[in-house]
Every structure is written in C-alpha cells, then in structure tokens.
Amino acid sequence: MLFGLRANIDAKQAPGLQSYRPHEPLVPQRAYGLADNLVMSDTGTASKSVRSPAQQRARKHWLAAAMASGPVLALAAWVFGPHGLMVEQVAKTWRLEIEVERRVLETGSGWCDELPVGALVLSRRTLDSDPSGQRQGPSEHCHYRSPQWRTSYVAQSQGQAPAAPHWPHPELRLDDAQGQALGAERLGKRQAFYELQLQADDGRQWSCRQNLQEWQARPAQAHYRVQVDRYGVADCASLPPATPPAHVSGTER
Known about the structure:
It contains 3 helices and 9 strands. It is an alpha+beta fold. Strands 3, 4, 5, 6, 7, 8 and 9 form a 7-stranded antiparallel beta sheet that branches. Strands 1-2 form a two-stranded antiparallel sheet.
C-alpha cells in the first residue's frame, strides 16, 4: 500500500519520467541510423549502445575467421594461380653414342650339345640328372671357351644447337676380311640423347630429355613454367608442347 502511494507521488513530481513498475520487462529502445553506436531514447537523448554477449561472441568469431582466412587465401592463390616455377631454357644439347664391340675369348659352361658355334671344349663330365629338372637321364656337361662380341668402349659426339647433331666415326680394327678374328671390332648399339638445359633464378638447374622432333621444334632460348616438387625435382612432362617451326634445321647426320 505504501509502495504504490510512493510511486504515484514520484510520477506526479517528475511528469517527464516514465513510472517503473516491478516485474515489467524492459522495452528495448529504438536505434536510429545516425551512428552505429548511438541509440535515441523516446525522450530524444542519445546514448552509446552496449553489445549483447551474443553479439560480442559473433564479433570475436568474425575476427578469428578473418585472421584464419589469410593463409587460406594464400593457399588458394598458389593452387588456382599460375602453376609451376618460371625457368629459362639456356641451351639445347645433344649427345650421340655408339658402342664399339670387340671379339674376345670367353670361358663358360653348359650342356655339351648346346655349345655356341666355334666353342673350344676344355673339359666335360657326365651328370646323372639335371639340377634344373629340364632334362631326363644322364647328360654331358662341358666347360668351354668361345669367341664372343663384347662392348669394348663407347664412342661419343656431343654439342649444342645451333650445331647439328652427328654420329661419331670411330676407327675399327679389322683383322681379316670377315672381321671374325679375335681382336676385331664392330659397331654395336646406338643411343641418342636430346636435352633442354633449364635454369631458375635461384641458380637451380635441370635437364629435360626430348625426342628429336620436339627438340628440333624448340627455339635456342625460351622461358617456361615447370612443375617442381618439394624435393626440387622438375617434372619435364609439365613443359608446354613444342611448336614445330616452318623450317627444321639440325637433323642427325
């Protein structure tokens, strides 16, 4: 009874103030667009707004997401941006090799009825059974010596564009007309290597092997983007395709 009377007296003494009644919920004030942090009350008085705990948590989450997005954006730029490392092709090199074989005597062993042509039997013995199980019954096994062609050395010629690739011309030893005598020589297996010499700005270097047509189609100097793994190995397959020139020079001789 006394509380109600006191509230009525206060309201009469301060007509500009709203009376407060216990247990009534507070009505949020209307915010105007003059400033984000100002709130206009019904009486026209501006006051600074206070963010709720939910708004503060949302703001913290937004700031954390913005900070975390930096590395993500950098990764996206690396993934979706221009691929590979820029390198310079500093040279086009070639190397042509021929194995030179020499006729020599070699010692071996085998079944006496399967010896190579021209073999000289040094000894023989009879085996009751074949250890490999391919033969049935006793068979003669021989220890022999026979002439064979074996690689003696590799003749090589090398250079770089614009010099044209050419095969080496080694001098061969021929002891008779047929070249079958011991010590005679002949040309054996041939191999050709055509490579692009690449170099990065930091000094790293790589060699990328090409076939003759691709090698010929590339200019003497150029710049490419090449994939390089974390171990520093360049992926030569990531080179852009070569464009054949109108006139190809530097063919094999």
